TrEMBL record:
The lineage of its organism: Eukaryota, Metazoa, Ecdysozoa, Arthropoda, Hexapoda. It comes from Parnassius mnemosyne (clouded apollo). This is beta-glucosidase. Gene3D superfamilies: Glycosidases. Belongs to the glycosyl hydrolase 1 family. It comes from the Eukaryota. GO terms for molecular function: beta-glucosidase activity. Homodimer.
Amino acid sequence: MQISNYIQVVSECQSAKTQNLKRKFPDDFRFGTATAAYQVEGGWNEGGKTESIWDHLTHTKPCAVKDCSNGDIAADSYHLYKRDVEMMRELGLDYYRFSLSWPRILPTGFPDKINEAGVQYYNNLIDEMLKYNIEPVVTIYHWDLPQKLQKMGGWTNPYIIDWYTDYARVVFELFGEKVKNWITINEPEQICYFGYGSNMLAPLLNITGVADYLCAKNLLLAHARAYHIYNEEYRPKQAGTIFISLSAQYYDYEFKEFKDAAEDANDFTWAIYSHPIFSKNGDFPSSVKKRVKAKSIQQGFPRSRLPELTPKEIEYIRGSSDYFGLNHYFTFYVYRNESVKGLYPSPSTSDDLGVATYQKKDWKGDLNKIVPLGFYKLLTKIRNDYDNPPVIITENGFATKGGLDDDDRVTFFRSYLNAMLDAIDDGSDIRSYTAWSMMDNFEWLQGFSERYGLYELDIKSPNRTRTPRKSAFVYKQILRTRELDWQYEPDTDVMTIDKGH
């Protein structure tokens, strides 16, 4: 990397600490990569697996996806799990985060039938990882709800709390002796707002300002119940940890008059899920409760469209996560003025919030913008708002359109790790960093048009060839040395497995 580029990137972090060309990570800091079942497994109808909401969407509305692709084969990890583990060894990972497919394990959606072929697949993957001392970090739910349960209302039906926790109990029983790090649910905002309150993710309900709020309450209660089940029944004998993974983009203000608007944007998009769990008093953020109630009454509703959490529910949810699992990709500036009035349908969650967002044209990046200062500010906000909870960064990554020479991704990882180190120096309790993603995969409604992988996936090859990008070699060097070296230039000819991996 050119030193001039380094100076440009670190200037956006506005920190004197970033002037060091080499920085060490804490001795006990851990690194991994992440994927999700539907995005990489393939084998969509093999071995007893039944239909998920993503199978249903991509088969009934194929071109709802940008490139009309689907996850029927994806990276074919269902058959190529040994190659997946070989890549983990090449990178030198401490851990690998993957998710379980609910309809692969419970084909009816319920625990009346456990699919042995699905269980065997996950046992094979876990055993292969453990053979090489790679720790499994397992997400119980990463968006692939059984279609059968969606027909019954999915996450808007309060019985989902029973359905999900029955499923969670099954996987604790099946894999808990081997898996010591559980993530209950991945990205509540994407499940509830993107899936139920808009048409950005399956099931594309777009019942905004109603369904997404119902989903939010049910999801939080389902997460909390799974946490308490594990904490009371399984932790004493399995000695693991359990937490939730929240998607938190950072909403900032360029002009002081929009400070409150930026705070509201953070509250509506991610603190609506983090505040009930991590704040001192629990419950939804007061700004969300006040704005939704006022809008609801104004619109003629007899009560707030945001369902209340009872005092008992507030106490049940509060404190129900061992770590703050953080997924972060984007930073936005926010404003709220007369131009925003009437901008969104009413009722809608966007209208309840009442802001507009933008990104600066001079921010580096195409599909993603590289704004490490936003990441630093987000980590600082989490520390200040929630009394410095232990944080595991469960996703952080950069999209390109493909190609092996991914210098922008290298810049992204270096600058965001640099910002993270600044936050650690300031006192933030950050334990681990997880790059999204180990390899290109099916990126939901973007299909394969956006590539996040350290390894490039050739979707045209019959054996789904995976080739390391420049970023894979740079990430490997970071893990090998436990050091962020801005001047390191890798030899990208051959990727090997270091001794001990």
